[in-house]
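Hi Y.,

Following your request, here is the sequence exactly as I used it, all 167 residues.
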Amino acid sequence: MAVTVEEFEQFYAQAVARLVGQLYVMLGDLQEAQDVVQEAFVRGWSRRHQLDRDARPEAWIRTVAWRLAVSRWRFRRRSAEAWKRSGAGTHVEGPGPEQVMLVAALSGLPAQQRRTMTLHYVCDLTVEQIAGETGQSTSTVKTHLARGRLALADRMPDPRVQEDHDA
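Below is the corresponding structure, written out as tokens. Let me know if you'd prefer a different format.
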């Protein structure tokens, strides 16, 4: 006999905490346990008409959650091994003070201005390229650049001015 929607909801309410606890003990990671149990319930929900009350749906959810966790472990291990094989260093330098200052200054701009400024000054795209990528007209891109430069002038010191003072 298939599980009804109401029965599945009741099953979820009664079993979710117990299953998360069980998977937590198995995995040693509460967040991972919550994630895989939730994903298993999502998969169970889509198959609720196939779940049989007498066939122990809790065991099915627990098994699916465990398999999801194992699959994630394998993916992470393969990814780590691929990085090692590629010779890529695992250490990535954090942002320097200039990047931190730039991000802080840009964060005060409206989203489109911030995107336009980044595409132009960080990605080195032309006005035409930005217009093509964002779907805006070239005049709109130019307006965003002009307004963005004006706004940033107050937030970021010009390094050329600093050099003149230091000389």
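The mean pLDDT is 84.

Thanks again,
Q.
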